[in-house]
Amino acid sequence: MPPLSARSSRRTVFEELRRRVVTLELAPGTPLSENELAAELGTSRTPVRESLILLAQEDLVQIFPKVGSFVSRVDPERVADAQFLREAVELASLDDMPAAPDPAQVEALRENLANQQLADNDPETFFRLDEDFHLGLLRLAGHERIWPTVVAAKGHLDRARRLGLTENPSMKVFRDQHADVLEALLRGEPDQARSMMRAHLRTVFADIERVRRRSPELFSSNSGAVPIRRSVAVWE
After folding, report:
1. What phi and psi values does residue 219 have, to the nearest 5 degrees?
2. What's the average model confidence in pLDDT over 114-142?
3. Is 70 exceeded by the pLDDT of residue 44?
4. Strand partners, 49
């Protein structure tokens, strides 16, 4: 990204670093240098240090005195907690769908589905469209204001979801699940939509279990373990 220079702020730096962690641009276990990040972002060390502290509060970064700071490995318990929250919010919102949904919002969801189909070989674009689709359903029910709270709580879940997308050669199955939920809602079948949504949201667990079997180093198994700072992080 271009240097932030004078317009840098803790919030701007925090959002950029969080984006890099959650999108896996900074992979689990990556060592973090305040000096290098400050130089790269064109800012002082202070907003970088403060941002790392905020990320540590989300357990997305671990700070070890006299060792250094590292991107946290994905915590399955945090994934499950975030999934519980997301599922509770999204399933509850389906009960509040209006009898006559806003046609413009329905059209936006259909356009989103069409774009999902075009993004079949682009996991990151598909991920963003997936987020927009779920936000669109909340908007349809009048609960879009809760979405930032959900997003703030699901950093570990989003990393796990991105890892899970690598387990699927095609995004078609997820796109079809989205379409099925929407059509059930438009038919006035909220119970069916809720069942479909629950199954859709829980696919992440099977996906990340396959990733964990193949790449266990990406996942935490001992939250108290201290890494050794080498060219890559190594947990003892």
Report:
1. -120, 145
2. 95
3. yes
4. none
pLDDT value of residue 6: 41
pTM score of the predicted model: 0.85
Taking the C-alpha atoms of residue 63 and residue 51, their distance in angstroms, rounded to an integer, is 12
Percent above pLDDT 70 for the chain:
90
User: Tokens representing 183?
Assistant: 């059509």
- Phi and psi at residue 70, in whole multiples of 5°? -140, 150
Residues 25, 64: contact at Cβ < 8 Å? no
Distance CA 109, CA 34 (A): 41
Q: What is the pairing mode between strands 227-229 and 68-71?
A: unpaired
Q: How far apart are CA 217 and CA 233, in angstroms?
A: 10
**Residues 175/119, Cβ–Cβ less than 8 Å:** no
Q: Which residues contact 116 (CB under 8 A, 6 or more apart)?
A: 126, 129, 130, 133, 171, 174, 175, 178
In the chain, which ranges are E strands? 31-32, 61-64, 68-71, 227-229, 233-235
pLDDT for position 10: 83
Please give the full DSSP string across 144-191, using - where no structure is assigned.
Answer: GGGHHHHHHH-HHHHHHHHHHHTT-S-SHHHHHHHHHHHHHHHTT-HH
Q: What's the token pair of residue 235?
A: 């947990």
